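dumping this here so i dont lose it
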């Protein structure tokens, strides 16, 4: 079986919370990493028309294709942890939004799912077997086709594989809440991370920026863990620069509805 490990990967270390080797651009001071992420987050989202295509009456095939690739990616990545699954799903959504899959070509969907998982595993420097992943997919592809699909995904995503996700903004928003001591901060962050993982496949969240999802997930966590302080935290978050209060309220409602189902 052929294995790809961290030693054979040329990609630098990656973490969902700190996607870039240096958290600021060359022209930005070192104490403004979060502002840089706010400025580039839109570049790491699906195409602007993606959400509309999925919710429109004419998007039945599109919806079914997304459902299938989400399910397959989750199945293929289930042994590698939540971070790998999240990153692979992120790649799949972005790829599908810019490169619609051909109808009646299940092999294309299977190959894309396999390669999204492989790319996520490479980014997280996780040891894996391509043969085992393909066996889980129920399809065997030669290395030439796998490499071609990887290149197609990389090109479609403009090589932006260090995804800016809601996890990048958690510490920034938590720092504005004025929580006393590490324990409540850790508890809040842990619950918000869980909410982000749980709600990733929700179609209605695709129209919101990662920072909005991060803030909304934290508000949902606050409502559960610190209900007496929720109003104060909500007002603080709504006043945060770079966030639109109306969009944040809508995003929060989507997450609350998803968690309530």
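and the seq i came up w/
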């Amino acid at each position: 079986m052929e294995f790809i490990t961290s030693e054979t990967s040329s990609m630098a270390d990656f973490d969902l919370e700190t996607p870039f080797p240096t958290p600021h651009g060359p022209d930005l001071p070192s104490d403004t990493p979060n502002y840089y992420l706010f400025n580039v987050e839109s570049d790491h989202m699906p195409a602007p028309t993606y959400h509309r295509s999925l919710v429109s009456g004419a998007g039945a095939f599109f919806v079914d294709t997304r459902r299938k690739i989400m399910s397959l990616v989750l199945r293929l990545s289930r042994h590698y942890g939540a971070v790998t699954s999240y990153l692979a799903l992120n790649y799949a959504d972005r790829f599908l939004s810019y490169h619609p899959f051909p109808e009646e070509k299940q092999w294309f969907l299977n190959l894309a799912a396999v390669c999204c998982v492989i790319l996520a595993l490479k980014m997280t420097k996780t040891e894996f077997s391509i043969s085992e992943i393909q066996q889980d997919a129920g399809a065997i592809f030669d290395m030439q086709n796998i490499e071609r699909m990887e290149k197609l995904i990389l090109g479609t995503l403009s090589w932006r594989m260090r995804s800016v996700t809601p996890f990048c903004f958690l510490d920034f928003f938590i720092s504005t809440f004025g929580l006393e001591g590490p324990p409540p901060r850790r508890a809040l962050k842990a619950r918000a991370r869980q909410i982000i993982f749980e709600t990733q496949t929700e179609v209605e969240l695709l129209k919101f920026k990662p920072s909005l999802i991060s803030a909304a997930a934290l508000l949902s966590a606050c409502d559960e863990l610190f209900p007496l302080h929720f109003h104060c935290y909500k007002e603080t978050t709504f006043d945060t620069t770079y966030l639109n209060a109306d969009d944040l309220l809508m995003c929060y409602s989507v997450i609350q509805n998803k968690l309530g189902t």
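Residues 106-123 form the longest helix (18 residues).
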